[in-house]
Amino acid sequence: MRKFKFCSAVLAFWLCMAAAALADRLAISSPTANIRSGPGTNHEILWKVEKYHPIIVERKSGDWYGFTDYEGDKGWVHKSLVGDIPTAITIKEKCNVRSGPGKENPVVFTVGSGIPFKIIGKKGNWRQILHADGDKGWIHKSLLW
Question: Is 135 inside any structural domain?
C-alpha cells in the first residue's frame, strides 16, 4: 500500500509538471484580436482584446491556442496574433501610473481594471509599463496580473 501511495504521488507530480510546461504566458501582439469559442475562424467571436493582453496558453490545436486570461475567461486565438512579450494587465478599479518607481513620484495618469501594458522595466516592486497608444509610466506590481 505504501508503494502505491508513493507512485501515485510521483505520478501526480509529473502530471502537474507536464501541465505547467504546456501553460505558457504569452500576449496579444497585434493591435486587436478576435477571441473565439473554438480553434478556427468558423467558431463564434466571443470578444475582442487589444495589444499586450496577457494570456495563459493551456492547449494547442493546429495554429490555434486555447487560453485562460486574468479573469479566468477561456477562448481561442490564432498563434499569428500572439507573441512572447512581457506584459501585465491592471486588476484594480483605480490604478495610479506614476512618473517614477515610488509613491513619492507624481501620478501621470490613472486607469481602471483590465488595461493591458507591455512591461519595459522593473525596479523593486515597481514595473515600468507602456500602453499600445504610447502612454508610459510606473505602477506597483500589486495592481497587476
Answer: yes
Those residues with Cβ within 8 angstroms of residue 67's Cβ, 6 or more apart along the chain or in another chain: 26, 55, 56, 57, 58, 74, 75, 76, 77
Domains: count for the chain: 2
End-to-end distance of the chain based on CA atoms, in angstroms?
A: 42
Residues 103 and 119 in one domain: yes
**What would the DSSP string read from start to end of 76-94?**
EEEGGGEE---EEEB-SS-
Spell out the per-residue pLDDT of the chain, length 145, in tens: 445 454 444 444 444 444 444 579 999 999 999 999 999 999 999 999 999 999 999 999 999 999 999 999 999 999 999 999 999 999 999 999 999 999 999 999 999 999 999 999 999 999 999 999 999 999 999 999 9
Confidence (pTM) = 0.83
**Residue numbers of the domain that contains 62:** 22-83
Same-domain status, 66 and 98: no
Query: Do you know the residue count of the chain?
Result: 145
Under DSSP, is residue 25 helix (H, G, I), strand (E, B) or coil? strand
